[in-house]
Amino acid sequence: MATTLVLPRTTASTPETAPRTHKALRHLGPNWYASVMGTAIVANAGATLPYQLPGQRVVCQIVWALSAAALAVLLTARAGHWIHHRDQARAHLLDPAVAPFYGCLSMALLAVGGGTLIVGKDLIGTGAAVAVDAVLFTAGTAVGLVMAVAVPYLMVVRHKVEANQATPVWLLPLVAPMVSAALGPLLIPHLPAGQPREAMLLACYAMFGISLFGTLLMLPLVFGRLIVNGPLPLALTPTLFLVLGPLGQSTTAVNQLADVAPQSIGAPYAGALGALAVVYGVPVTGFALLWLALATGMLIRAARDGMGFGMTWWALTFPVGTCVTGAAGLARHTGLTAFAWLASALFLALLTAWLLAAAHTLRGLAAGRLLAAPR
């Protein structure tokens, strides 16, 4: 699904000289890709739940189509942002509070691409779904790997940050390769047997390692900031749920990779990778539930203190969705009903968060608040 935008060559515009039709794009940041991620994960997680209700897959198809349309619109709008407001785009890259959101571009591409193979194939056919996912997976992985290096590099050499500024947002560019590791296995059965499948499998494990160890370096800074400096500002409180992203996504990744290991790599590795799915996934899921309880408590506290809606509310969607797919994978590999029920309960929480975030986003767009200059 693609949208073509033909624009005349032009120089970068300032807020005063930009045409009125382009002014709304000036403050359209990369954080908006989180809305695409959050929508796509509803479709992907809902279609892979252990329990399926009548009509559930049809609803997931509709939500996937919505995420694909949103991605096309947002890619076009962001292209307009870079064309007409290059000064603001560069300022975003040099802002330590905004630059990490460039990881969301990668994850939006990957999530919609994965959804194309999970549910989109019912609408466009398997062949077309494989082609679309291959393109989006390749683009998303390339962007993710670049941002996993570029954003930390900018934080070291250009951004002026202090320890008390650490937030879970810093994790975003590091999580992107883990999303590739979790969704890459969908393409493996469509690759030729032999080295292509094995290479793809091991590449996904390599990206798993990039993200895992990067997260292990960054997470102590985030938790240390909370312990030493107290709660995050009200508007940033929902970003605490971003910590669930690498936890749930890594659990999803090891389970998805274990599914395709027997057809990709020989013994004894295939069996060992199947065991890793449970040995790694269960304790990480335990920690994810602990963090979920902590983040929920902080969210309730912030709501009582008057936290209003912001685009950070979308942090309540995709990370929780990765925990749904992680629990569903553990249910598949352990056969335990407890994990199936956990996946279902988390999905209900995901659906509630998505409905709230989507409704407030549409309302904010209609009122013009969300694209207004920050105060």
Q: How would you summarize the topology of this molecule?
A:
Blueprint: H1 20-23, H2 33-47, H3 56-84, H4 86-93, H5 103-124, H6 126-157, H7 172-183, H8 195-229, H9 244-260, H10 269-304, H11 318-334, H12 337-367
Rg is 20 Å
Helix content bin = 55-70%
Low-confidence stretches: 1-18
Q: How far is the first residue's CA from the last residue's CA?
A: 36 Å
- What does the average pLDDT come to? 91
Q: Find the count of extended strands (DSSP E, 2+ residues).
A: 0
Helix and strand run: HHHHHHHHHHHH
3D structure, described in words:
This protein has 375 residues and is mainly α. The chain is 69% helix and 0% strand. It has twelve helices and no strands. Helix 8 (195-229) runs antiparallel to helix 9 (244-260) and helix 9 (244-260) runs parallel beside helix 11. The longest helix has 36 residues, at 269-304. The radius of gyration is 20 Å and the shape is globular. It starts with 19 loop residues before the first helix and ends in an 8-residue tail after the last helix. The model is unreliable at 1-18 (pLDDT under 50).
In a few lines, what is going on in this structure?
The protein is mainly alpha-helical.
Key traits:
375 residues; 12 helices; globular; 0% strand; mainly alpha
